[in-house]
Amino acid sequence: MPTYAYACKDCGHAFDIVQSFSDSTLTSCPECQGTLRKKFNSVGVVFKGSGFYRTDSRDSKGSAVSPAPAAATSTPAAAPAASAPAAAAAG
29: how many CB neighbours lie within 10 A of its CB? Predict the structure, then answer.
């Protein structure tokens, strides 16, 4: 169960409480019966690196991205093949 942090707007009393996801949000301070606000902290999980993509865990066969690199590699291979017959005809 998650722990939530609350702070009173009136008296400044701050506390943490363990609540279920289905529990309702607290609205009154246990010290002065004032208005509470829920405090939000930074996320506990941080992803570092160049990025995460939906195709990272898939096979290259089933990926929609795999035809693009094949087309990029076939273009440079076609250029030297076209210049080879011209060199043979000139020599």
Answer: 20
CA distance 13 to 32: 9
Where are the domains positioned within the chain? 3-39
Kind of pairing between the strands at 14-18 and 36-39: unpaired
Q: Residue 26: name the closest of 41, 6, 2 by CA.
A: 6
Segment (H or E) for 5? strand 3-8
Whole-prediction pTM value?
A: 0.45
Please give the single-letter amino acid code of residue 42: S
* Chain segment 57-84, per-residue pLDDT in tens: 666 665 454 455 555 555 555 455 555 5
Question: Do residues 78 and 68 touch, judged by C-beta distance below 8 A?
Answer: no
| pLDDT tens sequence across 31-43 | 999 999 999 877 7
